[in-house]
Amino acid sequence: MDKFRTNRVRVRHCGSSMEENNSYTTDGDGGSTETPPPPKEGMTTVSHHYFGDSNGSDDAVSITIIESMKEDYGLFVWPCSVILAEYVWQQRSRFTGIRVIELGAGTSLPGLIAAKVGAHVILTDDSNRLEVLDNMRRVCELNNVKCEVMGLTWGVWDESIFSLQPQVILGADVLYDSSAFDNLFATVKFLLENSPGSVFITSYHNRSGHHLIEFLMVKWQLKCVKLLDGFSFLPSWKASGLSGNIQLVEIRV
Ligand SMILES: C[S@@+](CC[C@H](N)C(=O)[O-])C[C@H]1O[C@@H](n2cnc3c(N)ncnc32)[C@H](O)[C@@H]1O
């Protein structure tokens, strides 16, 4: 967990505003008027993430996320998620009306923005992390979006996975533990093959500087059709608080 610590702080300054408190707030962006019940323990924060130009364009969207200071990967907005969400926003015409599934969604920023721009979204995370799944339901309610929330553990073949036919699979910072790569890619490859024409779009920290994606493409016989530096499309007002080698890739069978 330590290697992510610095990023926790950075997110506070990267085009999002954050309030620390023990309750929830909604802003004027179509958020729910009902206040979801707070988690049972741990200090929560509410962060606001803005999508649009820095001058406040007409079609701008704001997403509110509930985060927790608890030591759980899935209760915090990681920098990769900011980058993937921005990519979805900038490519929003591509997402209107399509089926999207987010893997390891955690606080779900990319999936929520996909839903805001008109995609039919299923947010998923580890079936055993009930608190993360509960938090996903809360943020959907808070942002007034109708996403399905589902437990989906990588490499586990529950019946529900067989009927999923996403056109886009999203995953932010899901390549962080090499011991989970095989399970993750078994699930990704199954979903890609089960839904012809689909694409996996993922943002990840290239911490080692090695050719991770090339290695995974050969191993899983997949094709990387796009590879971008995550900062190449991030507006400067969002990029200023982030650092690291974050890449975004699109992968197909
Ligand atoms: C580093 S966090 C990224 C969270 C979120 N996507 C973001 O970028 O803010 C990794 C996420 O993967 C989820 N995860 C880890 N192992 C998993 C597994 N085996 N199956 C499904 N999800 C898993 C965690 O619960 C967590 O939400």
TrEMBL record:
Key word S-adenosyl-L-methionine present: yes
Pfam families (alphabetical): Methyltransf_16
Compositional bias of kind Basic residues: 1-13
InterPro entries linked to this entry: Methyltransf_16, SAM-dependent_MTases_sf
Keyword annotations: Methyltransferase, S-adenosyl-L-methionine, Transferase
Gene Ontology CC: one annotated term: nucleus
Keyword Methyltransferase: yes
MF annotations from Gene Ontology: methyltransferase activity
Superkingdom, taxonomy of origin: Eukaryota
GO biological process: methylation
Region (Disordered): 1-47
Family to which this protein belongs: Belongs to the methyltransferase superfamily. METTL23 family.
Protein name according to UniProt: Methyltransferase-like protein 23
Annotated organism of origin: Lactuca virosa
